[in-house]
Structures are given as C-alpha cells and as structure tokens.
C-alpha cells in the first residue's frame, strides 16, 4: 500500500482539526435525524396516504412497514439544457429498476437548472451563482416529506451539482448517489471554435458565421464537451465516491449508460439503513473525500468555479476548507491532464484515452489521494480505478488502461504536464484571489502594467472596440462580487483580451467576479475578496495605477498609495430578469473564499 503524500496528509489533518467542532455538530444532527426518521412508519396514516396516493402499483410496498426501501428521485430535468434533456425518461426507467430489487422510487421534487452558456454576458447570469442556493433549498423541500430511504440525484451542470450536494448533505442520514447522463458527441475542433470567436471579436466575421460555429460545437443532447464546471462536477463526484465507478463520461442514450443507471438504482437500494451495508451520505462526504475532490480538480486542471463551490459544499458537511488548503495541495499535485480549454481535445477524447479510471489509479498509486474512504461502491476508492463495460449485456468493470491512450492529453504522475496543479492563491494589498496557471503559458505568469478600471464587461468591450486597450494593461472589472450583483461569470471578456494578448501586449484581468471553467490563456486574478462593494481595495483603484499580478510569488498588489482614497460609488443594483427577487441573497452573501452563499451564512453553517 502506497504511503500518503506528506502534503496531502498535512492539509487533511489541518482541515480535520479546523473543522472539529462544526463537523461534530453536523454528525450529531445527522445521527438525531436518522433516529427520528428511521422509517416512514412514524407518519400518521393520513400523512402516509397522501405520500403514496398516486404511486400506482407501488402503493402496497410504500404503505407496508415490511416494504422495501423507497428512493427519492430529485431531478434537475429540463429540455433546454442539453446536458439535462436525457433525464426526461429517467424516472420511469428508475422505477422499473427499483422494482427489480424489491424497492420503489418516487420523484420527490425538481430543482431549477439554468444554463450559464445561454446566460453568459446577459442579465440572467446575475442569477447564476445564487441558483446554487435555490437548488439546495429546492432539494431540502423535496426531501422534507420524510418518505424516503435514499436519494438519487439527477444533476450535472455548473451550480446544479454543488446545490444538490449542499441540499442533500442536510439529509446526510440517508445514502445518496449521483446519476449523470454523459457528454454529447464531439463537434468541431475546439481551436477552430476559439479562432472564430476571436475573429468575431475583431469584427472580421459576422454573426451568421459565429452562430454556425457555435452550433457545430453545441449540437445535441448531452453535456457540453469542454472541460468546464459541468464536467469538473462529474470528475468530483467520482473522486468523492458518489457515482457508480466510471459513470462520469459515458455518452447518453447508450446501452452502457442505461446499464450504469440501473446499477445505481440497485446500489442505492442496497446501501440504506435497512440493509447490511449502510453508507449514509454524511459518512461518505468527510474531510478525506473533500481533499480527494480538491486533488482531482488540481490534477485535471478543472474549473476555477470550484474554488467557490468546494468550500460551500464542505460547509454543508461541517467541514471548513479555504484557499490556503487549495494552494498548498496545488503545490503537491501535478497536472496530468490537458483537456480543452487547457488542451486541444475534449472530454470524449479524455475518456477514450483512459479517463477518470486512469487518473484515479495514478493518484492513488502515487499517494496523492485518500484510498481509505467510504464510497457508495463496495470496494471503496480503488473501485474507481476501473472502467465500466458491457459483456453480452452484462455490466462489469475492468482495470483502467496501464498506459495513456494519448499522452498529449493524459499522462502519468511520473511525467506530468506541470509539476503542480495550477490553482494558485495570489494576495496583497488588493485582496486575495485565484489564479489558474494551468491554462496560461509560464512566461505570462507575471504581469505588471497600468490598470484600466471598469464596472461592467460591456464597458470593456466598448473600450476594446475603440482601440483604447491597445497597450500593456491590467483590466480591472469590479463590483462583480456576490453582494454587488451575484458574481456573474465574465466569459465575454475572454475573446477581446485574448486578441490583445495575441497582438503582443502584456495583458491581465483582475476582478471580483468569476471566469468559470472556461478560464483560458489570459492571466487572471479572479474571485478577488473582499469584493469591491463594501470597501474592498478594488474600489480604491484608479485608471493608471500600476498593478502587479504574479503567480510565481503569489502577488496581487498595486504600487499606488490607497490610503485616504474614497471608494468608488457602487453601481445601483439593476432590476429585470428576476434579479430583484434575489436581493436577499445578495444582501446576505458571504465572501468568495467562504463559498459566496447567503443561505449558508444565514444558517450559521
């Protein structure tokens, strides 16, 4: 058995010690809830009758104290999101699979599922981060009926998986399994898509050409194939032991995908309180599982959004994670994958080259991930170093490939792309921020230049079009934090900043907003905390102040004397597109390093 890397061990011990009191309170709560709601027999006859009135042939089983486990389906289905469209038929299939093992299943509730790809750069994006809180709340409502013995969670995309995790963890006395639907087939080459976007930003192609390019990329049911937040979510569910092994990137609407869904339902029925292999979610998601999720994020160059989501998910389990932990882990974990936007191939190519089974085996064999964790799979984390396959319609697992199928995309720990995971903490007199170095060439890790200050990404686009940014420049976009406007992703900045960089200028972005899993080749300090609203240092910057961003020495600072300056006035919160309904979330939001959640702050978690 491989010894655990000393850095992984040290950070884990620190998280355990820091979390001791909160974790103990959480586990005590879960224990009380488990005893109180051990089965649905505590419900009155009237309550129970309401719960199975429409259950058809499952009525007798749900009503009987000797009936099998009743599984809650919490679904993020809608047919606008390509990733979630396949979920439409899942509930009826899952009910059949449950009956095969003497169990029942009911759709306990639906949760909202918005697409950041649709709302990028527009008003709806200001609802995006707080949709995570709404999803967690909707999960709580779904599970509040106390009719269930396990949770089948159907969700994939950006805020949806973290929201489901947060909500489900408050019912951690029950077992939980996430059931994905898989990525769409690969479309046009990612470099070609990126090229057309930049040409459009320069005015060299029109909207018709851009739309044709985008439609060739996002073209059918399934998850978008670039390695953004949605696919990083799927990686993390594997690393946390909440999937059936190898389920993350199997394509939708295939026999293997259907077999994995069936196996997940059977497994969920087997790991409930009434069986002999009880695996409650509260015990699966512990400090080691959170560290494994961090390690997976770093080893694969995953989404920067998880610098916010991981602390929030951890808090829901009574675990305190901060950016110092991520930075220290990053220094120890090598980057062993390059998936677009950090490489040329997409998640389908990654899966074909060896995928998550290869990654997890490499990490376990190098002592970079905890093997001694409880997972929903009987064999623990080692089961996730195997990949699923069908043998004459029978589902089985075989060892992941010993060698990478494409060493331009997937490499062993002994020969990584980079010696560290590329998620660095930068700090100084402008605050603390995240810098994703894995997507940026090393010669651009240090940028020092006069800044130009903006308060919207539209203003940046106008300045770019007017030629005002054709120079070495640090673009500062402030008042984009959770309390200001919900911390939208600023993905529309990527093409113009990329154009400036390609023209030979030294360019960087500094913002208290987000750049998402599509963070690309331009150096960026994102999630700056404290945010500008409320007096964060970004509110004190003025055009022309020299700003230094350096990933090498972890610096985010200005040479300007900020003392005595009055902060810039905050923009008035915009109304429309439902943004006014989320005012309470903005007012109560915590800082980015704490997860940017209003719900967790108000609940005292």
Automatic annotation (TrEMBL):
Its EC number is 4.2.1.12. [4Fe-4S] cluster binds at residues 157, 224. It is an enzyme of class 4 (lyase). GO terms for molecular function: phosphogluconate dehydratase activity. Keywords: 4Fe-4S, Carbohydrate metabolism, Gluconate utilization, Iron, Iron-sulfur, Lyase, Metal-binding. Gene3D superfamilies: IlvD/EDD C-terminal domain-like (3.50.30.80). It catalyses: 6-phospho-D-gluconate = 2-dehydro-3-deoxy-6-phospho-D-gluconate + H2O. It holds the Pfam family ILV_EDD_C. Its cofactor is [4Fe-4S] cluster. Residues 69-382 form the Dihydroxy-acid/6-phosphogluconate dehydratase N-terminal domain. SUPFAM superfamilies: IlvD/EDD N-terminal domain-like, LeuD/IlvD-like. Pathway: Carbohydrate metabolism; Entner-Doudoroff pathway. It comes from the Bacteria. Catalyzes the dehydration of 6-phospho-D-gluconate to 2-dehydro-3-deoxy-6-phospho-D-gluconate. PANTHER family: D-XYLONATE DEHYDRATASE (PTHR43661), PHOSPHOGLUCONATE DEHYDRATASE (PTHR43661:SF1). Belongs to the IlvD/Edd family. This is Phosphogluconate dehydratase.
């Amino acid at each position: 058995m491989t010894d655990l890397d000393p850095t992984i061990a040290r950070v884990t011990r620190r998280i355990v010690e820091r979390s001791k009191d909160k974790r103990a309170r959480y586990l005590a709560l879960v224990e009380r809830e488990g005893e109180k709601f051990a089965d649905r027999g505590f419900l009155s006859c009237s309550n129970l009758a309401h719960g199975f009135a429409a259950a058809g042939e499952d009525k007798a089983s749900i009503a009987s104290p000797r009936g099998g486990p009743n599984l809650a389906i919490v679904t993020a289905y809608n047919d606008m999101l390509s990733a979630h469209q396949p979920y439409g038929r899942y509930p009826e299939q899952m009910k059949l699979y449950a009956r095969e093992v003497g169990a029942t299943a009911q759709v306990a509730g639906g949760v909202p599922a918005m697409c950041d790809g649709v709302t990028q750069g527009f008003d709806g994006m200001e609802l995006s981060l707080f949709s995570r809180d709404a999803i967690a709340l909707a999960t709580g409502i779904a599970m509040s009926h106390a009719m269930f013995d396990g949770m089948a969670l159907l969700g994939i995309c950006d805020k949806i998986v973290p929201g489901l995790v947060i909500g489900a963890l408050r019912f951690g006395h029950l077992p939980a399994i996430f059931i994905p639907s898989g990525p769409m087939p690969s479309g046009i080459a990612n470099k070609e898509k990126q090229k057309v976007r930049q040409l459009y930003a320069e005015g060299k192609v029109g909207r018709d050409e851009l739309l044709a390019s985008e439609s060739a990329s996002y073209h059918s049911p399934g998850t978008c194939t670039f390695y953004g937040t949605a696919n990083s979510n799927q990686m993390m569910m594997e690393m946390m032991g909440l999937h059936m092994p190898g389920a993350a990137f199997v394509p939708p609407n295939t026999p293997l995908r259907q077999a994995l869904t069936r196996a997940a339902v059977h497994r969920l029925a087997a790991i409930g309180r009434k069986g002999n292999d009880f695996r409650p979610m509260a015990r699966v998601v512990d400090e080691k599982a959170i560290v494994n999720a961090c390690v997976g994020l770093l080893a694969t160059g995953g989404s920067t959004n998880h610098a916010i989501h991981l602390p929030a998910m951890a808090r829901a389990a009574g675990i305190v994670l901060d950016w110092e932990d991520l930075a220290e882990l990053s220094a120890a974990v090598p980057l062993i994958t390059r998936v677009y936007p950090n490489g040329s191939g997409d998640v389908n190519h990654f899966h074909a080259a060896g995928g998550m089974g290869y990654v997890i085996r490499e990490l376990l064999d190098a002592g970079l991930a905890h093997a001694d964790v409880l997972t929903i799979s009987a064999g623990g984390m080692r089961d996730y170093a195997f990949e699923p396959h069908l043998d004459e319609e029978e589902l089985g697992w075989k060892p992941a490939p010993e060698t990478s199928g494409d060493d331009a995309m997937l490499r062993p720990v002994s020969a990584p792309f980079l010696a560290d995971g590329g998620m660095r903490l930068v700090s100084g007199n402008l605050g603390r921020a995240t810098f994703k170095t894995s997507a940026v060439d090393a010669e651009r890790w240090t940028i020092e230049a006069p800044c130009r200050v903006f308060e919207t990404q539209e203003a940046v686009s106008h300045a770019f079009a007017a030629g005002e940014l054709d120079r070495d420049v640090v673009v500062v976009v402030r008042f984009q934090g959770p309390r200001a406007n919900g911390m939208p992703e600023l993905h529309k900045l990527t093409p113009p900043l990329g154009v400036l960089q390609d023209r030979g200028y030294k360019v960087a972005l500094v913002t208290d907003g987000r750049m998402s899993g599509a963070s690309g080749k331009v150096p960026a300090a994102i999630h700056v905390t404290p945010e500008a609203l409320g007096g964060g240092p970004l509110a004190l910057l003025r055009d022309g102040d020299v700003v230094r961003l350096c990933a090498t020495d972890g610096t985010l600072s200005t040479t300007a004397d900020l003392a005595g300056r009055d902060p810039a006035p905050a923009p008035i919160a915009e109304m429309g597109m439902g943004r006014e309904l989320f005012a309470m979330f903005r007012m109560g939001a915590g800082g980015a390093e704490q997860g940017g959640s209003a719900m967790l702050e108000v609940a005292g978690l």
